[in-house]
Write a structure and sequence with these properties.
The complex is a heterodimer of chains A (about 325) and B (about 525). With about 325 residues, chain A is mainly alpha-helical. Chain A is built from ten helices and no strands. In chain B, strand 10 and strand 11 form a beta hairpin. In chain B, helix 6 packs antiparallel against helix 8 and helix 7 packs across helix 12. Classes of the chains: A mainly alpha (about 325), B alpha+beta (about 525). Chain B: It is found in: Membrane.
Chain lengths: ~325, ~525
Amino acid sequence: MPINQTYAQYSDLSVVSAMAVYFLALLLHAAESAFGRQALKREAKLAAVAAGGGGTAVAERPAPPPPRERPLPERLGRMGVALTVLGALLHLASLVLRGLATSRVPWGNMYEYISAVCLAAVVAWLVMVRRHPVRQLGAFVLTPIGIMLFIAAKLLYAEAAPVVPALRSYWIVIHVSAAVIASGAFLVAGVISLLYVVKASNEANPKRFAGLAARLPESAALDKTAYRVSVFGFPLLTFGIIAGAVWAESAWGRYWGWDPKETVAFISWVIYAAYLHSRATAGWRGTRAAWVNVAGFAATVFNLFFVNLVTTGLHSYAGV
Amino acid sequence: MAGILALLRNTWRGLTAMRTALVLLFLLALAALPGVLLPQYSLNSAKVEQYKAEHDVVGPWLDKLGFFNVFAAPWFAAIYLMLFVSLIGCLVPRTFEFAQQLRAEPTLTPRRLTRMPHYARAEVDADPDAVVAHAKERLRGWRVAVREEADGARTISAERGFLREAGNLVFHFSMMLLLVGLAAGKLYGYEGQVIVRADGSENRQWCNSGLFAYDSFRPGLRVDGTELSPFCVRVDGFQAKYLHTGQADVFHADLTYQDGAASLGNDPDAWRKYGLEVNSPLRVNGDRVYLLGHGYAPRFVVTFPDGQQRTGAVQWKPMDTTTLLSEGATKFDRPGVTDPEQRRKTQLAVTGLFAPTAGYDGTVLTSVFPMPNRPAVAVDVYVGDLGTDSGTPQSIFSIDRRMVDAGRLSKVARKNLELGQELTLDDGTRIRFDGVENWVSLQVSHDPAQEWVLVAAVLVLVGLGGSLLVKRRRLWLRAAPSGDADGTGRTVVEVGGLARTDQAGYGEEFTRLAGGLLAVGRPLAAPGGGRERQDVP
């Protein structure tokens, strides 16, 4: 099947635009954080004055008069989310155009795969923003995703091309899409768990991470959000591994052979299994469980980059 | 004695505790890590040797401790076996508990429903019996117990979501089934590789008749190489296509095979056709045949001084997977020489490089493309004693260098030849590069347990779905006659709810349910007291 160069060019254009739009969204979220903190400080000062300068300052805020319009930080944050949606649409367009250009699924090499994982992460993030009060985390979530997308598009970029015979199987649709969505979800969950650790530490001792923690939602909300996303990702990861094993049986002659990618997938799976168990174990709830989720995040990133770039295994395609 | 028993009991309790299982899970993840960070024998033994050569201090130690064979190491096995013992110790009691719960009635309605995380209340003009009848109607799918309290109040205890624990148990038991299936495969399975020439000549059929038929063979622990599944294959032709970038595009081998299964409706003598490709192995008689790779066998025609001709074509080994530049050695015995002494002086080997599409760097031959567009060889010709009489096995890809070092085999010519060109040795022997043949490398795999592993894996997924999606939750309803003295059928209805799992989200369902339960008769006071707390973990 010949490559449609026009589509391929528009795909490249889309991904660059998506990166630019994500960056703007990131700036807006950062501004939301910054202004939000100033507003918080102002209110704290007011409260301190109202309380006659004595006692704990922020314990009870005076009820502010109902605002005529949304406060500036919230408006900025909402703009950030809107831009993220726009970025995601451009990002999606770049993948769809890649697929059209090559007449195959748009995750046939490292560039496309990481790009798809980033899109899955952005979508997971947008779904969470809709369901949970976590919008303030925008800057923290978009930063790692942006960095990964940049690495994929600048350092690991591969021209639109057909894939090798080993990848020509309908299992590439099933196995890789499950891996993409699960990885995307885990990336977001890991960032949120890391922020949970910060917030929980601050709640235990207000002196720690005072600046950062002030911009974060309640630790309970963070914990719940991270758990929800992980619980969504874990069955998908399990399914992805099983689908991979079925594919490996027909492509490589065995369903499991401890290929580096298989091994790290196994390690991630064990870590996430431990995370789910740790939330039901006395003494492990809270910060410890969150660290386990962060370890899962580390394993996911390790699997994305290290396994393909440093080791050589059967999952190496198109040079990496 | 009592001390020993106590020790055993405490050990068992410790091992089956969730905390221990968690630690074992972490250990398992940690123990698998060297399998990625260090080269492994099972994946690439050459890399292990290289690593050992580069790290001469830690290398041998790591080797002794099994770090180059992590997944067969005793310490790795110890961790997962402990994990599974811990799992059994946890699962068996839970199974019995679950069986009891399935038979047990839902628990009594607590005195104070206001203390439940979810609570709603209303005063209605229907009598308690009507409220209960209405509620039973609404609570279809729930496990329900209706009770009467001393003061005349009627209560309903309802519970649902038992599939959560069922899924949980299915998940964990399936994990064990999966491990058993994996182990059975390692015991009774085998895997072998063989290189077969792809020219379809009758005498080139390959049969799965025993160890000797393979170039390399990895038997399971209970496989001795006899009683392999009988079948034969013949490779009639092979096509490999590459894009102009050198990336592989199509690999296709035309197979003919004979299924030796002595079953009804199968003619073991019948030959059938199959197009073997990557991703579509031939499944025959319980075994699978895979197309692993391909390469070339340059064909040489040697014309000896007495006019006799010999043709030789053996597979040469690809050195570079992208250009298929290959190396090898094609060996000849001089025809008509019967005296061993004489033979050991006149054996001949054509060794060197083969390029499917030749490119020259000066006179040095390289390959620029993997398809045979312009085949050429750069050969060294050796004459003398190849060492094949010594009884020690030697590689088909090279000559025995020791014979050269001992001066018993000497290089007599070196030349680049393109297709059809020939070289002449001093004694008049002519060697012509006559043609190129294809060979394919096949893998035969046998794993009698893999279907069971698949079944176990699907059950793992089903169990996981149940245990993560289903919420175990309880609901209680109390319908008490109102305290008013006239007793005109006013009833206070209270509903309380509790989710027994840490997954939040019972609130919405409860609000909806309670709304339905309280909508009975004519409400006298608007449903009130509706509130929601955090679900109790």
